[in-house]
Amino acid sequence: MKEIVVDPHKTDFFVQSLKSKVLGRKPLLKYSRRFDEYVFSVEESNLGAFIDILHATLWNLCFSKKYGFSLKRLFRDQKDKSRLYFALPSVRESALGNFNYVYFSHAHLYKEKLTRLGTYQSVTFISENDVSNSRIVHELGLKRFEIQRFTIRKEILKRGKTGLYSLDNSILITGTFHRAINNRIFRNKVAKDWGIETLHDVREFVTCSDLSYVVPNLKVKTSELKQTNFFNAVLNGRQRSYFRFDIVQEMLDAKYAIIDVENLTDIVPINFAESILCGCIPIVPKRLVQIESLQVFSSALITFEDKEDLRLILTKRNKEICPKTFERLQNHIKNIYA
Predict the structure, then answer these.
(1) Would you give the distance in Å from CA 322 to the centre of its chain?
(2) What is the DSSP track for 87-150?
(3) Do the Cβ atoms of 127 and 30 come closer than 8 Å?
(4) In 10 A of CB 190, how many CB atoms?
(5) 218-224 and 171-177 strand pairing
(6) pLDDT at 240
(7) Are 104 and 140 in contact (CB under 8 A)?
(8) Strand ordering across the sheet containing 123-127
(9) Full strand arrangement of the beta sheet holding 171-177
């Protein structure tokens, strides 16, 4: 059965989009797997169809040589006989076929769409890790999932180190976070739908608290995505300062890496795996150990219960890490992300 990705050009999950090119924003490129065909869907209205065809044509002109394929139109026989893959932000119910797979990333923004898609027996969600015990899955009653891991950058595999490794004694935290107070989209969508002020509690706590003064060797390399109006959203959406530094070198330098977990979806960020492969000792929420079933590697992890527990750990860090267990953890990470 053919595997076909539908409308890959409308997000940055699989390929660079026209939007990211125009805005000068680095594409996310979460999934590097290859599909048998790359197609675009078309709305039923004449105007909508014209816009969809124009969008796909422009993308082909800009990117077909770079990626080695051109987008073609999705037809009925493909919908009936193929496995169709969609990014959640761009999935259209009119494009669904008999076998549909929807990537779960950015689920916090699409409560109504998720609720509708969850009613289709033909829809299976794809998540980066086990999200079956997450709040969003329980509240919406979502049932059909399969796991497909994030893509680890080739640079990590090339520059990473075996065993415990650090060039200094620093503690690193990276990643983007939003706060309802400074992000209009988050405030009007996520805070309204789910009643939360941020999706990344740990990143927000470490960045916005006094920890940098209390813990002198703490390296805060996070980025708050502030979008209070249209122009602010366009400028900050690029995150140029965040993408400018060499994140791989920062992980190689650091001895520890603080890892967050999305509080609503239980999605574990890719920097968890990447920092371990760079030799960092992970400082993680206890929930992450349960999500990833890492209890057997407990002697290679530092865990915390809540924010105050994290503060205490960062000021003491007196746990001894077992080097052999850490190497076993690295091998485990390589295997599940292979």
Answers:
(1) 29
(2) EGGG--GGG--SEEEEE-TTGGG-HHHHHHHTT-TTEEEEESS--TTSHHHHHHT---EEE-PP
(3) no
(4) 21
(5) parallel
(6) 63
(7) no
(8) 72-73, 37-40, 3-6, 83-87, 99-103, 123-127, 145-147
(9) 218-224, 171-177, 256-258, 281-285, 302-304
- Characterise 269 by phi-psi region: left (phi > 0), alpha (psi -120 to 50), beta (else): beta
The pTM for the full model equals: 0.91
Which residue type occupies 37? E
Which tokens belong to 300? 């290679």
Judge whether residue 337 has pLDDT over 90.
Answer: no
Q: Show the tokens assigned to 178.
A: 């939003």
Question: DSSP code of 265?
Answer: T
- What counts of helices (H) and strands (E) characterise the chain? 17, 12
User: What would the pLDDT profile of 2-32 be if each residue is shown by its tens digit?
Assistant: 999 999 999 999 999 998 888 888 887 888 7
Could you tell me the two tokens for 148? 């497909």
pLDDT higher than threshold 60 for residue 124: yes
Mean pLDDT for the chain? 92
Longest dimension (CA), the chain: 66
Distances from the Cα of 309 to the Cαs of 90, 147, 294, 300, 306, in angstroms? 39, 31, 20, 18, 5
Mention every residue, 6+ apart, whose C-beta is less than 8 A from residue 59.
Answer: 9, 17, 18, 71
Question: Mean per-residue pLDDT for 302-323?
Answer: 91
In the structure encoding, which two tokens stand for residue 252, read together?
């190689």
Band (111; pLDDT cuts 50, 70, 90)? very high
Tokens of 291: 């999500």
Instruction: Indicate the SS3 state at residue 37.
Output: strand
Pairwise CA distance, residues 277 & 284, whole Å:
15
